[in-house]
Amino acid sequence: MPQWPAVHRPDGPQSGRAPGGPGKGEEAPLDYSRFRETGIPADKFAFRTPPLHNVAIAGPWMHNDAFSDLRSVITHHLNPADSLHGYDTAVHPPPALQNSFQNDPAFLDEMLSGIDLLLTPTRSLTQAEISHLVAFLQALTNPAAGDMSHIVPVAVLSGLLVDGILYLHPTD
Question: Could you tell me which CATH number the domain at 7-146 has?
């Protein structure tokens, strides 16, 4: 029975810090993710698999923003070993993360030794098939989700900032 939310070990590139901060605990600068909760070695580098709804506007992708486009994510999943060993930090991550990626070959091999078999591809894909997958993922994105400015409230009861501006809710 699959867990929900689904947690998988895609073995994406590991940065010295995720967008929210550095690695956690004694394993810093790495992020052992689910292992920190379960203590099960197979859970190292296992991350929650997010839903695909609105995925085209959810980037950059992976738990640490390792990939800047959907095609790269799909290509990574097709061959994680080649992707990890050939990961180009000048292309994918935000500039603040470019110098923090772990690229020691022994470390990469350790990560790959426990890849989730559910994520192991059974065949290669052509560039056209990858383009079709990207188009499919884009089709899962609601066009209205790209511009949500129409739902920004004029004011909030708390008096907190709305879109960088302090709006106070008018009192009765």
Answer: 1.10.760
